[in-house]
Amino acid sequence: MSPALQLALLLAILLPAGKLAASLCSRFAIPAILGELLVGVLLGPGAVNLLHMHVFAGGEASSALMLLAQFGGFVLMFIAGIETDIDRMREASGAAFLVALSGVIWPFFLGAGVGHLFGLSWKTACFLGGALTATSVSISARTLMDAGKMQSPEATVILGAAVIDDVMGLFVLAFLAASGSTAHSTFGLAPMASDWLQGKLPLAAHHPLTVQMLVIGISVTAFFVVGYWLAQRGLSPLIHQLRKLTANEAVPSCVLALILVYAISAEWLGSVAGITGAYLLGYVFAGSEFKADVERSFYAIGHGLLIPLFFVAIGLSSDYRTLSGHWALLGAIFVVAVVGKLVGCGMAALASGMSWVRSVRIGCGMISRGEVGLIVTAMGASTGIFNKSEVAVMVAIVLLTTLLTPLALRATFNLKSDEDFDDSLEYDRSLAVATPEIPVEPATSEESAGEVSEDTSYRISAGCTTNSLVFPKSQPILE
Q: Does residue 61 sit in helix, strand or coil?
């Protein structure tokens, strides 16, 4: 069978299986990405071992599948950028920023420290900590929505902090990717600049690590500043010109090319991860007039093909059999993943003036890991920083924290506090103020006798304005 037919057969198996599993998970209020991950795990080396069957001999189809999955990572982060709630980020309170910052620092250092205690190199341990930094905002949002708590103070802080710590997590990823690659790669401006400085300046030659870190910091900052400025200035006129073309779907095609250009530029300018460039471009689109059109164009190909393949491919690359000798590491990292967010975010919320009940709720709402953690894991695997055991550990952490978060969040909202009662009273008052008063004309003598005029409406108050009853003007109140 030709490689093209092998790839077609793989897609014909993986796409329906991933969507069916995602649909089944959604039916039970479980995040859909877990279904796609589990399909990959079940079809991976630990069970079916699909990619190593005789019909897929040669490996070309498997390589093509993994390349498509990497494109899925670019599109996923572009869509994540375009769906970023800029207003929420701008209006996020100091509590949300403090919670986000603490929710990045605690898991990163705890994860890196515990990983190193278990014998991992510092580079691998730091990637492990980086994978634990970002919260899955979609999982927390769905749980809060199902519980009817989207307007609560906790929801405002959780959702604002989750968006902010996603961005912080990407900065951590960018720095880790750059610092991890300069030691073994000559691709990109940062390694070349570092080598040039060490060759020209004697002081730089004696402090190579310091020079590398300085160059990385400058290059990462330069990419974000220049990339954001170019996109802000150039996107609007470019899209307006593309809309004048008679070719079908010219705008999505060129936007896809822009995603790839930003991904390549991100890696070349400072050895920054390509997905960071895709996210930056999406973030600029989020504040543009073309947001809805571009998002609609990429929704079908993203969620219908590339993004499911990304999650299924991560599952395929993990072999749960390799966990047999790493149960202690899995348990320790799981504890760190929970404690890092629960304690770190909870203490930050408490320090910002919230009650301990609300602080615990916020900590629980920040536990789940999702897309960004899986992207860091995939990147660590592709660069050889993570081996199969470490990939399996991280996939298991994402599964476990995603299952734990809705249960913990629902349980903590069952812990009632005086503030909950105050919020409900305030909510009732806001409804009462919003309820329009209906004027009542004085009853005439005929109406007092039981005859109702055509132009009269009767309003009977049941004690408060939110529970008022309005009788139709064509019906008498009393027979």
A: helix
Instruction: Give tens-digit pLDDT for 31-73.
Output: 777 788 889 888 888 778 888 787 877 678 888 888 898 888 8
319 shares a domain with 230: yes
DSSP state of 304: I
Contacting residues for 332 by C-beta, under 8 A, at least 6 apart: 114, 118
- Rounded CA-CA distance 408/395 in Å is 20
Residue 185 structural domain: 3-419
Say whether both 412 and 462 belong to one domain.
no
Integer Cα distance of 149 and 446 in angstroms: 50
Across the range 374-401, mean pLDDT stands at 83
pLDDT per residue as tens digits for the range 137-149? 666 766 676 667 7
Nearest-angstrom CA–CA distance, 1 and 59: 12
CATH number of the domain where residue 391 is located: 1.20.1530.20
Name, in order, each residue with C-beta under 8 angstroms of 92's C-beta and a sequence gap of 6 or more.
160, 161, 163, 164
Alpha-carbon gap, residue 209 to 217, rounded angstroms: 12
Please report how the helices 274-286 and 153-181 are oriented relative to each other, as an axis angle in degrees rounded to 10.
140
471's tokens: 């009788």
CA dist., res. 326 & res. 118, Å (int) = 10
